[in-house]
Write a structure and sequence with these properties.
This protein is 43% helix and 19% strand. The chain is of the alpha+beta class and 298 residues long. It has 2 domains: 3-94, Phosphorylase Kinase, domain 1, CATH 3.30.200.20; 103-293, Alpha-Beta Complex (Aminoglycoside 3'-phosphotransferase, Chain: A, domain 2), CATH 3.90.1200. The protein has a 5-stranded antiparallel β-sheet with strand order 1-2-3-5-4, with helices on both faces. Strands 6-7 form a two-stranded antiparallel sheet. The N and C termini lie far apart (57 Å).
Length: 298
């Protein structure tokens, strides 16, 4: 069976037209192939394709997107199906029409993101399944406090991988250890649990045209967990690409502003260490600069 046969079977099971008129390759397929399919009746869907052994990654993505959608705040593409055969796996999703991001769209996105972080998210930190940050496994075992969660499953997890992979020298690793020992100085122990996108860089914020013809921002490719809402803002600020209006509208809707700069630096360190683990020591210097900013010296 071919990839196309798998996708046609998924469409047929939903009672949709299964004749594909056109397949357009989309950007963003660093891990999987991504296509927009135009069907014979002119309906469109987006499909990601990979080997059957990686179906679990699509199950994770579907669970994250559905969790975000349940908040009824930020816009995400609807997940229609995840399926696989003996060779291939596919996730089929709603296709959103790309558009230019306007100032109003960015402002509304900032407010929607704040609403997402204010939405009920239980009383613990973690998620119902482990997932991946890029290709890095991301453990999400539930914890009752945020300090423990970060020590075990975020900064501590990336440190263990960096040591195993040689991304940090012994001296550099010891600096990260000192930060982990002092996390109570920088992070609240029990911030309000918020549902996080988890990997909110600009490439995962998609400007699109709504059914009313407005420019809006949707989010894609999440690595969701429950944590401190400022962790999403940290990732957004780390690599840029977002309008300042997002941050202004977000901050105006959030009441917890305690030690924000320090919290942002810690959460950014998590992502920079992940880049060390994914791409090598080219990111190690950036990690050390973040430790400097937190007063964690040589």
């Amino acid at each position: 069976m071919s990839e196309r046969d798998l996708v046609r079977g998924i469409l047929a099971e939903r009672g949709w037209c299964d004749r594909i008129k056109r397949a357009e390759e989309l950007s963003g397929g660093c891990i999987h192939r991504v296509q927009r399919l135009t069907l014979a009746d002119d309906a469109q869907v987006v499909v990601k394709l990979t080997g059957a052994s990686q179906r679990g990654l699509f199950e994770e993505e579907a669970a994250s997107l559905r969790a975000l959608a349940e908040t009824r705040t930020v816009r995400v593409p609807e997940v229609f199906a995840v399926d696989s055969d003996e060779r291939y796996a596919a996730i089929v999703m709603e296709s959103l029409e790309r558009a230019r991001a306007t100032d109003d769209a960015w402002a509304r996105f900032g407010e929607s993101l704040a609403a997402m972080h204010r939405a009920p998210a239980g009383s613990r930190y973690g998620f119902g399944m482990d997932n991946h940050l890029g290709t890095t496994p991301q453990p999400n075992d539930w914890c009752d406090d945020w300090i423990t969660f970060n020590r075990q499953h975020r900064i501590g997890h990336q440190l263990r991988r960096a040591r195993e992979g040689g991304g940090l020298s012994n001296a550099e690793a010891k600096r990260v250890e000192r930060l982990i020992d002092r996390l109570d100085d920088f992070l609240p122990r029990t911030p309000k649990p918020a549902i996080l996108h988890g990997d909110l860089w600009s490439g995962n914020a998609l400007p699109f045209k709504s059914s009313e013809g407005q420019s809006e921002i949707a989010v894609i490719d999440p690595a969701t967990s429950m944590g401190d809402g400022w962790a999403d803002i940290a990732m957004m600020k780390l690599f840029g690409g977002f309008s300042q209006l997002v941050y202004e509208r977000y901050a105006a809707k959030i009441t917890d502003h305690d030690r924000v700069d320090q919290r942002l630096a810690v959460y950014q360190l998590y992502h920079v260490l992940n880049h060390v683990n994914l791409f090598g020591r080219g990111y190690t210097g950036q990690a050390m600069v973040l430790l400097d900013s937190l007063g964690i010296g040589q």
